[in-house]
Amino acid sequence: MNGVHDMGGMDGFGKVEPELNEPMFHTEWESRVLAMVRAMGAAGAFNIDTSRFYREALPPHIYLASSYYKKWLLGLEDMLVDKGYIAADEVTAGHASTPPKPLKHGGFKINDVERVMIRGKFGRPAPAPAKFKAGDRVRAKNIHPTTHTRLPRYVRGHLGVIERDHGCHVYPDTAATESGENPQWLYTVVFDGTELWGADADPTVKISIDAFEPYLELA
Amino acid sequence: MTGHHDDHDHHHDHDHSDLSETELRVRALETILTEKGYIDPAALDAIIQAYETKIGPHNGARVVAKAWTDPAFKQALLDDGSKAVGTLGHVSRVGDHLVVIENTPQRHNMVVCTLCSCYPWEMLGLPPVWYKAAPYRSRAVKDPRGVLADFGVGVPNDVEIRVWDSTAETRFLVLPMRPAGTDGWSEEQLAELVTRDSMIGTGFPKTPGAPS
Question: Pairing state of beta strands B171-175 and B98-102?
Fold first, then answer.
């Protein structure tokens, strides 16, 4: 979706302000939110692409005004309500009042902790040969899906070059809507800064994205 | 989308203005999930403890220091980051999709996630707030030299800047250049020079003798 989360190239957000000796969490609740998201994901309530989509779908004024973990909290609440794991009036009341809905992998227990600390595997067997190879000139398609996608707006319609092939991966666009892993070839595509930002842009800058095959066409 | 946050969040939720409201809301959700048997609060404690103790930039620093001292390991790391890190034994949590990118006198690499917050947390720890916030995500791909200036970092104008936007499940780790004046240093000594930001590409390693 063309949401406010798709920030590449926007102006007006000001300077980057690193915090000296930044703590891992600024408040205790941030750590509880992170842990709840990881636990419910590992229990099978949702996949990572669905959870990203729920954060992206927050109303723009809420997205921009909320801290990082606040967005995680709001996205988690919405997702669990929509998927029937909790009810909206339970959130209001602060207590459970309806029976649980079975989780794909059962309740999250202490023995499951080690599992969430290992990054997921997204590589899948190739359903078809790769259409592109390193060195091919490609154009990022001018597409505007209203659901989740990982093709940022700032490259759409622009010419780039395939640099690397990462094999076939789970396709976020369909995984997010729970319509299947639908594995797709994944490539690093490099764009000149001047191609993306115009003739006046810094000629020494190149930008790459990792693009799934359906995002690209041969140029 | 339910969109049910629209009604009660019209005052803006900055981090420090609504702490107690958010805190209550988080506790309420944890209570509900616990009562339904979805989670065990002790398991959440263990997840948090694992994040606080098992991950951090020391993991990445060790990999970089080894690459600086062992050419065969460096080549293996650039060829297949996950496989090479896997041979070290300590970072099995790295997953399959780690890509290590090398800074050279001709090219400086910098990593961003414009769409969310993708980051090699098993190598660097959880990302800092600035990495996840709008100023960095918006500007890194359009004005990387300006962003580097915000960090007090200058890269010569004849050096290419390459920005890697982490738009898939691949995760990028920058292999910075080894500082001069470190001949004969051990891996352990070298690892002390490797900063988190030098592995994101928004900084350089510390130089020998400089105050830390």
Answer: parallel
> Across residues B67-85, what is the average pLDDT?
96
Q: For residue B92, indicate whether it is catalytic.
A: no
Residues B70 and B134 in one domain: yes
Percent of chain B scoring above 70 in pLDDT:
88
Tell whether B126 and B157 lie within a shared domain.
yes
Candidates A11, A21, A38, A119, partner chain B, best to mutate (most B CBs within 10 A): A119
Q: Which of B31, B97, B197 would you mutate first to test chain A, the one with the most A CBs within 10 A?
A: B97
pTM of the entire predicted model: 0.94
Active-site residue (options: B92, B116, B138, B186) = B116
pLDDT band at residue B1, thresholds of 50, 70 and 90? very low
What per-residue confidence (pLDDT) applies to A118? 83
Q: What is the span of the domain harbouring residue B113?
A: 56-200
To the query of whether residue B116 is one of the catalytic residues in this protein, the response is yes
Q: C-alpha distances in angstroms, A107 versus A69, A70, A144, B38, B136?
A: 23, 24, 37, 4, 37
Q: Which amino acid is at B177?
A: M
Strands B160-165 and A205-212: parallel
Residues B33 and B100 both lie in one domain:
no
Average pLDDT, stretch B17-27?
Answer: 82
Tell me if A205 and B130 make a contact (CB, 8 A cut-off). Answer: no
Report d(CA A122, CA A168) in Å as an integer: 8
Which chain A residues in 111-170 lie under 8 Å from chain B, judged by CB atoms?
Answer: 112-114, 116-123, 150-152, 154, 164, 166, 169-170
For chain A, which residues score pLDDT lower than 70? none
* Residues B32 and B134 placed together within one structural domain of the fold: no
Residue of chain B nearest A12, judged by CA positions = B135
